[in-house]
Amino acid sequence: MKTYFDCIPCFIRQALGAARTLDLGDENTEKLLRQTLELAQELDWTLPPPVIARDIHRLIRRITGSRDPYLEQKIIDTELALKHLPEIERQVAASPYPFLHAVKFSIAGNAIDLGAKKGEDIDIDTIFAEALSKPVEVEAVRRLQEAAADAGSVLFLADNCGEIVFDRPLLERIGADKLTVAVRGAPTINDATLDDAIRAGLTERFAVISNGTDTPGTLLDDCSPEFLNHFQDADLVISKGQGNYESLSHLNREVFYLFMAKCNVVAGELGVPIDSFVIRKK
Amino acid sequence: MKTYFDCIPCFIRQALGAARTLDLGDENTEKLLRQTLELAQELDWTLPPPVIARDIHRLIRRITGSRDPYLEQKIIDTELALKHLPEIERQVAASPYPFLHAVKFSIAGNAIDLGAKKGEDIDIDTIFAEALSKPVEVEAVRRLQEAAADAGSVLFLADNCGEIVFDRPLLERIGADKLTVAVRGAPTINDATLDDAIRAGLTERFAVISNGTDTPGTLLDDCSPEFLNHFQDADLVISKGQGNYESLSHLNREVFYLFMAKCNVVAGELGVPIDSFVIRKK
To answer: Cα–Cα distance between B127 and B104 in angstroms, integer?
Structure first.
């Protein structure tokens, strides 16, 4: 997906939101905003939006001197999600359509996004309520379930901390034997890295690889050769989150995208209301 | 008023809004956005927000090659407002508190602002409804009425086209004999210039002067010596609109401000809900 005109003011707003979430203080906030304005001005706007998100968060790590400024919130979100995992598993297992419910919990978990929204503690009640009530295209879920059953190998592109715990019932139903989960190669916003996957207990059950980049998305140009091999060879690729959608949706390779459409630009491109649960094969 | 951090993404959003209102097309929209990013980056953020609004609209006039890109809309808004002036006058004259109602119609007319909001035709019904229903600080109106009665000379800083017609009942009640109305020195957004004041019939009743600048506000550094003399010498200055408030509120000179608080930053600074009718002496 290209960068739309409406993304430009949003980049600046996101940088300001990050500065507030991380309590950067006036001097560092001004520095971050000015450098973000410069980035946005120099950017090739035919590139996908996660390019500038990557660069903004590189600036933030440089300005704060922190390798992982969101670490504390990531640990809190992971632990909170893990506390609710048994209940999620119970609800999914008790459902007449466990795969459908697993997909809905996975997409509901996509609400845990410190990039798109202001940094707040997870509202578990809302996530549970949305997982049960938000409409999804049932036919698309059926196609995904069939594709997962038919595939010999599935690559799952993970997204954020906390969210990767909500993905767990879906990952279990796809099957550990055929699954590889890809996480970010280095900290960026609250996106899950290998350390976060370990904290979430994901590595105990599944093969987890790094995609080799610090982009809050999957820009193939930035990814490691090991990841690119997996991306090319997998029978099925499932992509979680809007950042992964934004960075991959223009490719020819068939991918199943699962995410909440969190902004007007993406919702508009897809022709769905904002905050819709999206399941798209592209 | 200084430029707040929240103003920065809003500048970019306003430039995009102007590009859409004026149908600039993709190429010119990108040019305007990139140059606005550069302006915002280089700006001294201790200056009031109308500085960048001035520069954005200078860019727009350069890009479009038009001296007055909003002219058509300004004429439409003026004619529409003039059509309703007899009814406004009738309602004000019939009110038990004509000065209060004149103030309320004047502030309600401040909704006609192609800078803060997306360009749309005036919704006359909403303006009339708000003029009748929105709360104002009656005590502040009383102080304004007394100050106007006591003053030998009153300088009224006008704001937008259409809006200056809604100011008319208030101007009449202040009195043509003591009143000077100041308009912008050159076109900027839909702000009223001398040409617009003539079209609105204002010059037939009142002394109208130019403030000598193309800023959508009143930056004294930009204003003409003639205007500055009036500003210094007037017994009472009444300032209409948020742009005038933003550019003058840090001054020591006593000014009565009348406007709708159209953005979160200004509403927050004043401690009022957004879109409140504000009457402040400062």
So the answer is: 10
Which residue's entry shows tokens 């009665």? B149
Is A23 in CB contact (< 8 Å) with chain B?
no
Distances (CA, A) of B67 to B59, B64, B102, B138: 11, 8, 33, 41
Q: Write the CB contacts of A161 (distance below 8 Å, at least 6 apart in sequence).
A: A74, A75, A77, A78, A112, A190, A191, A192, A196, A200
Query: What is the per-residue pLDDT across A204-242, written as a single tens digit (0 to 9) for each?
Result: 999 999 999 999 999 999 999 999 999 999 999 999 999
Q: Which chain B residues are within 8 Å of A5, Cβ to Cβ? A: 16, 19, 29-30, 33
Cα four-point dihedral sign B114, B118, B121, B124: negative
Q: Using one digit for the tens of pLDDT, what is the confidence trace for B187-217?
A: 999 999 999 999 999 999 999 999 999 999 9
Neighbours of A226 (CB within 10 A): 13
Per-residue pLDDT tens over the stretch B151-177:
999 999 999 999 999 999 999 999 999
Which pTM was predicted? 0.91
Contact A37 B33 (CB under 8 A): no
Its ipTM equals: 0.90
Query: Rounded to an integer, what distance in angstroms lies between the CA atom of residue B147 and that of residue B234?
Result: 12
Q: Do B8 and A40 touch (CB under 8 A)?
A: no
CA angle A90, A92, A94 (to 5 degrees): 65
Q: What is the mean pLDDT of residues B239-265?
A: 96
What count of Cα atoms within 13 Å lies in the side-chain half-sphere of residue B87?
10
Partner residue facing B38 (CB), from A5, A16, A41: A41
Q: Rounded CA gap, A75 and A73, in Å?
A: 5
SS3 category, A120: coil
- If you write DSSP's letter for every residue of B173-193 in order, what string do you get? HH-TTTEEEEEBSS--TTB-B
Q: B237: which 2 tokens?
A: 């200055």
What's the pLDDT tens digit per position in B76-118? Answer: 999 999 999 999 999 999 999 999 999 999 999 998 876 655 4
Q: Is the minimum CB–CB distance between B6 and chain A shorter than 8 Å?
A: yes
Is A123 an 8 Å CB contact of chain B?
Answer: no
Cα–Cα distances in angstroms (integers) from residue B32 to residues A98, B113, B197, B253, in the given order:
51, 20, 29, 36
- How many Cβ atoms sit within 10 Å of the Cβ of residue A176? 13
Q: Inform me whether the C-beta atom of residue B34 falls under 8 Å from chain A C-beta atoms.
A: yes
What is the CB-side half-sphere exposure of residue B164 using CA atoms within 13 A?
31
CA distances to A60, B82, B112, B137, B206 from B183, in Å: 44, 18, 16, 26, 12
Task: Give the pLDDT of residue A118.
Answer: 47
* Residue A8 sits at the chain B interface (C-beta within 8 Å): yes
Q: Which residue in chain A is spatially nearest to B41 when comparing CA positions?
A: A34
Beta strand B256-260 with B277-281: parallel, antiparallel or unpaired?
antiparallel
Mean pLDDT of all residues in A25-38: 97
Q: Judge whether B43 is closer than 8 Å to chain A, CB to CB.
A: no
